[in-house]
Backbone:
């Protein structure tokens, strides 16, 4: 799978306290906060002062279907990889035995899938913008001929 490592997702226990620390103390810029119903959680995107590093903070309720109660050692949530062709990237991961557990999801120009990989780590494999279309020739039924080109 070819892609660009774009961000690190970190799990936090208190979103407000974490956002305050990274913005006020470390000088990062809050780009947005989003509540996500299906995860029973929220995420916040922050950029470093120079705009080169992206950090995603993730908070989940104790009864979240994707995380469960927080435990020490759960701080690293996932690594985000942006790819040019989401379908191709997911096919490549599947060939190597890594199947998406959540997604792909499509909305707002984003296409995202979450894939468990090694030692409890997850990848957020995503593409921004239109997806590449796959064109497959329809099989010709047996006993028929394709029309000749003129």
Residues:
């Amino acid at each position: 799978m070819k892609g660009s490592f774009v961000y690190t997702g970190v799990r936090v226990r208190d979103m407000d306290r974490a956002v305050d620390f990274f913005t006020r103390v470390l000088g990062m810029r809050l780009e947005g906060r989003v509540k996500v119903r299906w995860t029973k959680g929220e995420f916040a995107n922050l950029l470093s002062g120079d705009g080169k590093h992206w950090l995603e903070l993730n908070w989940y309720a104790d009864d979240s279907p994707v995380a469960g109660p927080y435990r020490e050692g759960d701080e690293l949530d996932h690594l985000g990889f942006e790819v040019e062709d989401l379908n191709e990237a997911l096919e490549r991961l599947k060939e190597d035995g890594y199947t998406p557990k959540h997604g792909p999801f499509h909305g707002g120009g984003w296409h995202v899938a979450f894939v468990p990989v090694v030692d409890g780590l997850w990848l957020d494999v995503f593409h921004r913008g239109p997806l590449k279309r796959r064109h497959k020739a329809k099989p010709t039924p047996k006993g028929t001929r394709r029309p000749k080109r003129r």
Q: What stands out?
A: The chain has one domain: 4-128.
